[in-house]
Design goal:
The complex is a heterodimer of chains A (314) and B (430). Chain A is mainly α and 314 residues long. Chain A has 16 helices and two strands. Chain A has two domains: 64 residues, no CATH class; 223 residues, Orthogonal Bundle (MetI-like fold), CATH 1.10.3720. Chain A has a two-stranded antiparallel sheet with strand order 1-2. In chain A, helix 11 crosses helix 12 and helix 14 runs antiparallel to helix 15. The longest helix of chain A has 35 residues. Chain B is α/β, with parallel strands linked by helices. Chain B has two domains: 229 residues, 3-Layer(aba) Sandwich (D-Maltodextrin-Binding Protein, domain 2), CATH 3.40.190.10; 156 residues, Periplasmic binding protein-like II (D-Maltodextrin-Binding Protein, domain 2, 3-Layer(aba) Sandwich). Chain B is built from 17 helices and 20 strands. In chain B, strands 1, 2, 3, 4, 6, 10, 16, 17 and 20 form a nine-stranded mixed sheet that branches. A five-stranded mixed sheet of chain B has the order 13-12-14-11-15, sandwiched between helices. In chain B, a hairpin with a 5-residue loop joins strand 18 and strand 19. In chain B, 50% of the residues are buried. The chains are: A mainly alpha (314), B alpha/beta (430). Chain A: Keywords: Cell membrane, Membrane, Transmembrane, Transmembrane helix, Transport. Chain A: Pfam families: BPD_transp_1. Chain A: It is a multi-pass membrane protein.
Chain lengths: 314, 430
């Protein structure tokens, strides 16, 4: 989850830092340097940060994924045992499928909810003040830890929880619904609850930048509300949707704690495979799983990016 | 490291009440004969870092150590997997490892722990037989699994291989142990439970749970499969690949049929599952039963006819411990076996390695209830003040000899451990 946020923070910092000295000493202006050199200098801080905190750790993970492990230690080697076990075990495929299933379903729900909320904020709320107030309201639950927000579902959904006792007293059901908790339902519910804001924010952001005159033009030309939505608003909101989708998909695919708690440890995703391996000191095997997960996530993102050229749209 | 510890201790010393420190020093020097009084003064400056599972890493113990011995004990409580990991990979992060015997079997070969001289242990002769010869009474049969005495001794100070008998060099000084069984909610089950097979009884579909710590979970699973008559094990504590496959097949099928409500990994999870009524029968630990009961919810640690799955824990010393810190650690161990901690633990339902010294710290009613299996003559309270039983009640499972005498299997690490772990992961993912 933090990877992306960090990335953005680093970007801001990196962009801000090199500018400052040039202001202080105008005689040392960047204009004197050839464009190529100043370009390299400007990108240097970010490049260094990314190299030390992103590239190096990943290289390390890839290296360790070829190592061997005993019960209590790991030793350098170059062997394919970890990958062989991983890629030949039917459980791996099952778990990856499960992970992708969670990601897809969560993505669909967060997209619909996130888009609706953003649409309401951007087009139905007329004054900027109210837009800001309502937007802040959306973020308030995120001031608490996401683990607490997740765990608070457990007493709510339990066999004798609030949801079941309310439904029973209303006469809707006779016996408690067991599938409310410790099931795929509860896992996805928690995911949707936790990650919808990551969809709302970028979509709202792009919607706010849509020129209102385009919508007026659509109406003037006789487009219905639905036609305006599908022909004007959705195409122009695509970059926001794509950024939100990348957030949600990567967050869900890398998660392990939500799946562990909300499924009562009964379901597995790739994150749990990795955390189990680490708990049992099988670092090389964990690293191999992490490498495969990384490749999978990169594939998914590259597929998403084929639909929209974020660079061009931003 | 020594410098750091000493300087840390000095700042703490200012908080220490003079009286307590003097008493501590006096007690300290009195406890072990032959140590010069001079270091009883220095010992106040020592800080020992102990880590282990939650069962015995209690702040009350650290407080009492400060009062009685004068030095500071820093406690860190982790789950079993994390404890193993830390003992194996971060030898410099601790001075005292409070670990279980099966963890010791895994960790000892790393060389991160040092053997301890039994001649320095004052109460060594009074330690129960389970940890020395392996036999509770001369007639006892030794149970399957990693029985503590099989990994309790090494040949010498630098011994790597475990010795089968008493050698004078111990890997862990035993401190705490118990016999585990299934916990049930008698109010929600409403009939007697007497066998491990009940865990997979379809009657409790969606209301059963098992713990998700592979090395312990597999033993509970084996107890169930053996009780069902599905599998005859050569040694449940050291299964063959075939036995592991069969066991996991039976449990995977049960899981797919919706037998389990959830799996738990930490103490708190097991308490919540039981107290909320999500689960009515599950693998459980003794203090978790106590925690459920203290909320006013009926919960029984049900003795079963096939016997108990038992575990034992002890204190191991880091390889890097030497000089004053090492002496302090020995003093701590002697204090540990001297009875106060034993009484404290026994009043929570565990057993002390030297029960006879613990007796001095328990009243007759407590000793009768917890150790002898007698009817309580008055309220039985936990060390934290919760009432656990009222007059006339007896302990689930009876006396010490009845309970520890009916151990079917010890928590274990198998030769096929890595294979088992992979199969267990598949079971969880299935």
């Amino acid at each position: 989850m933090t990877d992306q946020t960090h990335l953005f923070i680093h970007k801001d910092r990196a962009a801000a830092e090199p500018v400052r000295p040039t202001r202080a000493k105008p005689s040392f202006s960047l204009h004197r340097l050839p464009d190529a050199v100043s370009g390299w200098l400007l990108s240097l801080p970010l490049a260094l940060v990314l190299f030390f905190f992103l590239v190096l750790p990943i290289v390390m993970i890839v290296v360790v994924s070829f190592w061997g492990a005993t019960e209590f230690s790991i030793y350098p080697a170059f062997q394919f045992d970890n990958y062989e076990f991983l890629l030949t075990s039917p459980v791996t495929y099952q778990v990856f499928l499960n992970t992708i299933k969670y990601a897809l379903i969560t993505w669909a729900f967060t997209l619909v909810i996130g888009f609706t909320v953003a649409y309401f904020l951007a087009f139905h709320v007329k004054t900027l003040t109210w837009q800001i107030v309502l937007f802040l309201l959306c973020t308030i639950p995120f001031w608490t830890s996401n683990i607490i927000r997740m765990i608070s579902w457990i007493p709510f959904l339990g066999r004798n929880g609030i949801a079941n006792s309310t439904l029973i007293s209303m006469g809707v059901i006779d016996a408690p619904l067991d599938w409310l908790l410790f099931s795929d339902f509860s896992v996805i519910l928690a995911f949707v609850h936790l990650y919808t804001l990551f969809m709302v924010v970028p979509i709202f952001n792009t919607m706010m930048r849509i020129d209102k005159s385009l919508i007026e033009a659509a109406y003037d030309n006789g487009a219905s509300g639905l036609q305006t939505l599908t022909n004007v608003i959705i195409p122009l909101t695509k970059p926001g949707i794509m950024i939100g989708s990348i957030f949600v998909v990567t967050l869900v695919m890398g998660d392990f704690i939500t799946v562990r708690f909300m499924s009562g440890s009964q379901s597995a995703n790739v994150g749990r495979l990795i955390s189990n391996d680490i708990a049992l000191l099988q670092y090389p095997s964990a690293a191999a799983t992490a490498v495969i997960l990384l490749i999978t996530v990169l594939l998914v993102i590259s597929i998403l990016l084929r639909f929209v050229d974020i660079r061009k749209e931003l | 490291m020594t410098d750091k510890l000493v300087s840390k201790g000095v700042s703490r010393r200012s908080i220490l009440k003079g009286g307590a420190a003097v008493t501590g020093a006096a007690l300290g020097s009195g406890a072990i004969t032959g140590f010069p009084t001079i270091w009883a003064q220095n010992i106040k400056d020592v800080t020992l870092r102990q880590f282990g599972t939650g069962v015995s890493n209690l702040n009350e113990v650290a407080q009492k150590v400060k009062e009685d011995l004068g030095f500071t004990l820093e406690m860190t409580a982790l789950d079993s997997d994390a404890v193993t990991q830390r003992a194996a990979t971060q030898p410099d992060s601790f001075d005292i490892a409070d670990i279980e015997y099966w963890i010791c079997k895994k960790v000892w070969p790393t060389g991160n722990l040092q053997a301890m001289e039994t001649s320095k242990i004052k109460n060594y002769d009074k330690i129960v037989g389970i940890f020395k010869s392996g036999k509770l009474t001369p007639e006892s049969e030794i149970a399957q699994g990693t029985a503590p005495h099989t990994v309790g001794f090494v040949d010498g100070p630098d011994g790597k291989a475990f010795a089968g008998e008493e050698t004078g060099w111990m890997t862990l000084i035993p401190t705490i142990y118990n016999a585990d069984t299934l916990g049930i909610r008698p109010d929600l089950i409403g009939r007697p439970i007497s066998s491990w097979t009940e865990l997979l009884n379809p009657e409790f579909k969606g209301k059963a749970s098992i713990l998700d710590i592979s090395s312990i979970g597999i033993m509970d699973a084996a107890m169930v499969c053996e009780a069902m008559g599905e599998i005859q094990y050569g040694d449940k504590g050291n299964m063959t690949r075939e036995e592991i496959d069969k066991t996991m097949a039976i449990f995977t099928e049960a899981k797919k049929n919706g037998q389990f409500r959830a799996f738990w990994k930490t103490f708190d999870e097991s308490v919540n599952l039981m107290a909320s009524g999500e689960v009515v029968i599950q693998s459980m630990w003794s203090p978790a039963i106590t925690a459920v009961k203290s909320r006013g919810i009926p919960c029984v640690y049900q003795p079963l006819k096939e016997g108990y799955r038992s575990w034992g824990g002890g204190i191991g010393l880091s390889k890097s411990l030497s000089g004053l810190e090492l002496d302090a650690a020995y003093e701590y161990i002697n204090w540990y076996l001297d009875g106060w901690v034993g009484g404290f633990l026994m009043r929570q339902g565990y057993y002390s390695a030297v029960p006879e010294t613990s007796k001095n710290y328990m009243d007759e009613n407590e000793w009768g209830y917890w150790f002898e299996g007698k009817e309580a003559t008055g309220d039985i309270t936990s060390p934290f003040g919760d009432v656990l039983a009222k007059a006339g009640e007896t302990r689930d499972g009876g006396s010490f000899l009845e309970r520890m005498g009916a151990v079917a299997c010890w928590n274990a690490v198998m030769d096929e451990n890595q294979y088992m772990v992979r199969k267990w992961n598949e079971f969880i993912a299935a």
